[in-house]
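Structure representation.

___
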Amino acid sequence: MLNILSTGSNYIFMIMCAIYAVSCFTVFLPSTEEQQIKRMNRQERFMFIFHFICYGVLFLKTFDVQILALYVAQAVFFKLLIFIYEHIYADCSRIMMNHICFLLLIGFVMLTRLDFEDAVKQFIIVAVCSFVVLLVPIFVAKAYWLKRLRWIYGLIGLLVLSSVFVIGTSKNGSTNWVSLGGFAFQPSEFVKIAFIFFLAAMLEKPGSFKRIFVTALFSGCHVMVLILENDLGGALLYFVVFIFLCYSATGRGIYVLGGLSAGVLAGRIAYILFPHVQTRFDAWIDPWSIIEGRGYQITQSLFAIGTGSWFGMGLTQGSPSDIPVVQSDFIFSAIAEEFGVFFAICLILIYLGVFVHFLQIAMDVKDRFYKLVAYGFSICFIFQVFLCIGGVTKFIPSTGVTLPLISAGGSSAASTLIIFAIMQGIFMIAYKEEEGVEEDEQTSESGQEETGSR
């Protein structure tokens, strides 16, 4: 009976996720405020229905009351978070809030399915961080002096990033963790925020080649530290953000071509010098010949995706635990196995919807510093999604990057929530700028009417 319920519910999940994914783009169509509110409310209803059915299936699998308690706590949290944002920040982006909640609840469902303790830990971290960052949007909207701290961002970021060489610990082959008072976190997840602020502040004004060179040199130091930590995903993420922000700030394609050439050369050198790079590259080229060793993780990931096929095995019906590190780096494979490839494609579309919304904010805001910050976070967000999904599907070598807001990992979840909060602040700045333009136009029109009447 549970198998039938689990498999049958998958069709409901696919339909709901498909409608939600389509609505991620239809919200950008010209419409009245009433129509937009209806779309947002429909998205919210889909989220809570999806959440309810998933936890219903998980409860029927074990009849564990703790699962029901976790579900209730999450439902209250999501409703309270939406309520607070709607009443404290009346001019915030409701679309962004819906996306945050939907991606988080997918992560909570999968983590509860994979490891209940991880799910509880992730929920506590997300809940605490979500309420802590409530002040970030208003801070960003008010603190216009942020653009003056250009070297402070770079120096503090590089110092924090390098702290792992003194007080760092190793995990999964990378020395990019710091443990303090029983809490472990990845400095690189938070430094990437300061790194983007550094780039935006340095590139805000059209600068000379000297400024670009100094910025590139400082950015290279960040990337080199990450390479020495064996954090290849982080190094690639920082590098790509730098290249695209240089292009956004200058409009010169030579920086993209030069960056790509440098990236290819650096990749070749890294393959020669670092054994762990060779391991991941070899596992990407032909994992089947080394399936019992280095290729085991990626082959299990491909098996899971293939087993799930288009419509999925059904929640709790797959074997995602066969994939090493499935809770963090390879959670997309678990989603594809149990919810199906069609659902996974819709999930990718939701991520693209977030990316498009970020880009729209970047285009709407007039302040050049915040425009570059928004562009930087847009690239950072979507490229992290690409690295994660590309790695688990063997499209690119695995880089050990998490799936934003879904994978287990307190550092990743916290830094992503901070990024969304900053984007909310930039959205509010753009909204106020638009209101100011409209007021100026109305004042100008009224002045012309008075002059004409005289």
The chain has a mean pLDDT of 85. The chain is about 75% helix and 5% strand.
